[in-house]
Design a protein that fits this description.
The protein has about 450 residues and is α+β, with helices and mostly antiparallel strands. The protein has four domains: about 90 residues, Uridine Diphospho-n-acetylenolpyruvylglucosamine Reductase, domain 2, CATH 3.30.43; about 120 residues, Uridine Diphospho-n-acetylenolpyruvylglucosamine Reductase, domain 3 (2-Layer Sandwich), CATH 3.30.465; about 90 residues, Alpha-Beta Plaits, CATH 3.30.70; about 100 residues, Vanillyl-alcohol Oxidase, Chain A, domain 3. About 30% of the residues lie in helices and about 25% in strands. The protein is built from 13 helices and 19 strands. The strands form four sheets. The chain has an eight-stranded antiparallel sheet. It has a five-stranded antiparallel sheet with strand order 5-6-10-8-9. Strand 17 and strand 18 form a beta hairpin. It binds flavin-adenine dinucleotide (FAD).
Length: about 450
């Protein structure tokens, strides 16, 4: 009998551990182009205490632990490169508290985005969170662990900027809390205590996020999305600047794609508006369409495609999956907004060279402080040559994003290496020391963010 397996059974119960090959297969890959690697065990804990016991066991036995939320980050970030324990966190799914007045929700890490949306709609309809365009099973913990962004990114920034407090199981098993929750029972702010920001953006390599307090925002009653289009990509940064100046939109996305052919070469804007009354909506539309975009229409530089009201949430994810075989992966980079034209031109060139219909998209973060620019490459999962082509295109795009002065968001191993090669050596050395201090046995998601 495998002693690690038996110890895991003792911690979480037989039905929540597996070492069966057919089940481990499911945990060996994600939906992107990363080569699969099988874990030795898959474990689904239900409590923080069970997670503590699992990491203590892993430390004793020197077994890797790979946290897994929805497994939807696409870049291989939760693929167990060195085997070990796939720590499936989906059973950590309690919504513990919603504080309406202080506008936050305290949740366990495995609460899914879809669960959060439906819970708020049902019990707190005046509140909303910044929902990523990811499929519904993506988790709150996984999203903040990679600095995700959602449909309120334009006014409020990254989802990880919306964290009011964290509970973490350290790689050595201790539980730590950060924010007001570390000194009282309130989970309303992460500041102004000394900054120990060691867990957001680390892709589970410094600890396991078990609880998150997430900021909530007013949920307006009416939503709508306006579509505007320009031919000249050089105009995009200026249009975004003007749109953000109005402070009227909730989400601003500029995109261009090869499919359908009639729209290829055009730059589209999706401008999401929300209001509590028709009067408020009309006012916002007037400021945006007439006062802000009107000049482009009058000059013949742009056109208004229409406004659809009553949409539930903006949908950005359906544009990705063009090829037979259903695969896609994207490079997401955090770019200065004024690089949009180059991102578009050079990204399109990479796609066309690899014979993949191009899809590029820039989502505004903050008041145009940055954009998340994504270059998506579709591939056929059943065709190794098509996967190879997409992988090459992704690597070239990682190089491009850095050459254009951006930083990579949730990079896979290739991108992480590029980032660390370019990083200031003192910063890199500090990263190494932090990892060694927190994770002396190197058990946490090994392969990722490994400073040599
Ligand atoms: C179609 C599509 C559209 C998308 N659109 C968006 C978008 O608009 N915005 C966006 O932000 N993302 C988007 N994504 C990317 C991704 O799906 C999301 O960011 C998602 O929220 C990641 O959460 P997850 O639970 O799937 O994380 P996982 O993939 O399970 O994990 C991500 C990383 O975090 C680690 N991790 C997971 N849980 C924890 C934890 N509790 N503690 C510590 N580490 C942990 C994992 O080891 C891994 O390294 C999209 C993906 C797809 C497929």
């Amino acid at each position: 009998m495998d002693s690690v397996y038996q110890a895991l059974v003792d911690i979480v119960g037989q039905e929540h551990v597996s070492n069966r090959q057919e089940e481990l297969f499911i945990y060996s890959f994600d939906l992107g182009t990363t080569e699969p690697h099988r874990p030795d065990y898959a474990v689904a804990p239900r409590t923080t205490e069970e997670i503590q016991e699992i990491v203590r066991l892993a430390n004793r036995e020197k077994v890797p632990v790979v946290p897994l939320g929805g497994g939807l980050s696409l870049a291989g970030l939760a693929v167990p490169f060195k085997g070990g324990i796939a720590l499936d966190l989906k059973r950590m799914d309690s919504i513990i508290e919603v504080n309406e007045k202080a506008r936050y929700a305290l949740v366990e890490c495995g609460v899914s985005q879809a669960q959060m949306v439906s819970y708020l709609e049902r019990y707190h309809p005046t509140l909303t969170h910044s929902e990523p365009g990811a499929p519904g099973p993506a988790t709150i913990g996984g999203n903040v662990a990679i600095h995700g962004q959602g449909d309120l990114a334009q006014p409020y920034g990254f989802n990880s900027d919306m964290v009011n407090g964290l509970e973490i199981v350290l790689p050595t098993g201790e539980v730590c809390r950060f924010g007001s929750c570390s000194i009282s029972s309130g989970w309303f702010t992460l500041h102004p205590l000394p900054d120990l920001g060691l867990f957001l953006g680390w892709s589970g390599t410094t600890g396991i996020i078990t609880k998150v307090s997430l900021r909530l925002f007013p949920c307006k009653r009416i939503r709508g999305v306006g579509q505007f289009v320009v031919e000249n990509e050089e105009l995009v940064p200026e249009v975004i600047h003007k749109l953000t100046h109005t402070q009227m939109a909730e989400d601003i996305i500029a995109y261009s794609q090869a499919v359908p052919p009639f729209s290829s070469g055009l730059q589209h804007f999706l401008i999401n508006l929300a209001a509590d009354s028709e009067k408020e909506l009309e006012f916002k539309q007037e400021i945006i369409w007439d006062d802000t975009l009107g000049e482009y229409i009058r000059r013949g530089d742009g056109g208004f495609l229409g406004f659809r009201q009553g949409l539930e949430r903006p949908v950005v994810s359906k544009t990705s999956d063009w090829r037979k075989g259903g695969g896609f992966e994207y490079v997401g980079a955090i770019m200065p907004v004024d690089t949009y034209p180059e991102c578009y031109r050079q990204g399109r060139e990479i796609s066309e060279r690899h014979d993949i219909p191009y899809t590029v998209l820039g989502r505004c973060i903050g008041m145009a402080h940055a954009m998340m620019f994504s270059w998506t490459y579709a591939f056929n999962r059943a065709d190794p040559e098509s996967i190879k082509q997409a992988r090459e295109a992704l690597h070239e795009t990682d190089d491009l994003a850095l050459e254009l002065g951006g930083t990579l968001w949730k990079p896979g191993l290739y991108g992480q290496k590029l980032v660390m090669e370019r990083m200031d050596p003192h910063t890199l050395e500090l990263m190494k020391k932090v990892k060694q201090l927190l994770d002396p046995n190197g058990i946490m998601n090994p392969g990722n963010w490994e400073v040599s």
